[in-house]
Amino acid sequence: MLIGAVYARNLEFAHECMHFIAFRSRRVNRVVGTALAMTLLTNFEEWRVSHARHHVDVRDEGFAYQPAAIRNWWLLWRNLLALDHFRAALGKCVAAVRGRMPVRSRSERRVRDGFRLMAACLAGGVVFDLMTGQPVFLWLWFLPLIPAAIFNFHIQLPEHFGCVMDNGSALINSRTITTSRFLSWFVNGNNFHASHHWLANAPIRQLARIDAVIHADLAHTESSYGAFFGRYYREVFRNIRAPKGAA
């Protein structure tokens, strides 16, 4: 559980690296971000490109799990455990190793190389455990992916969920959540997501100050993560328990 929490937190730091604001050197940002993102089978360069599109249009959003779409427990756990993400990542690892990924630009080459590196690390972990008879990677990487995925779901879902996604203003299409200093550190400032979209390249440590300026104009704010997810899960569970065919 603790290792999974660390992996989820590190993915948020990888997000900071992705904006090239964690370190002064772009190379250091890229190297550190690649390593941290890989723990959740996330390709840094692929994420960076898609995330740039997301900042232009928030409708390009990977965490838009509407309660009405979660019709049973299987779909809920499929989302919580990021099964589609992990399956896609493994498939891309295979495609990259077999030379079946397009390489028409430097960015696409980096994406391919990132998946090849991921494939090598995964294969190396499996081989190490099998040859030594010690489940080191199983316990330190593979199994922690379960809690890491669940933590990551709860960190990223509130960012834009229920907001007006077809509006280009961060005051309307993004959310801010009031929380403790510890939780704000754990999510690496992601509770100030409206501030992040307001000034995407602002240092994470400045997001609270930005929030103080724009907070009164925000359309979507929450008093706590508990308030947000309490409302979300009540609707999800109501939908799961609803008789089949009910409107």
Account of the protein in words:
This protein is mainly alpha-helical and 247 residues long. It has a domain at 160-247. It has 13 helices and two strands, in the order αααααααααβαααβα. It has a two-stranded parallel ribbon with strand order 1-2. The model has no long low-confidence stretch (mean pLDDT 92).
Number of strands: 2
State mean pLDDT (0 to 100 scale).
92
- Mass-distribution shape: globular
Question: What portion of residues is helical?
Answer: 55-70%
Question: Sheet with the most strands?
Answer: 2 strands, parallel
Unreliable residue stretches: none
Number of helices: 13
* Structure classification: mainly alpha
Layout of helices and strands, plus pairs?
Elements: H1 2-18, H2 26-38, H3 44-56, H4 73-80, H5 83-97, H6 106-132, H7 136-142, H8 145-156, H9 170-173, E1 176-177, H10 181-186, H11 193-198, H12 207-214, E2 221-222, H13 225-241
Helix pairs in contact: 1-2, 1-8, 3-6, 5-6
Transmembrane segments: 114-131, 137-155
Pfam family, one: FA_desaturase
Organism: Tistrella mobilis
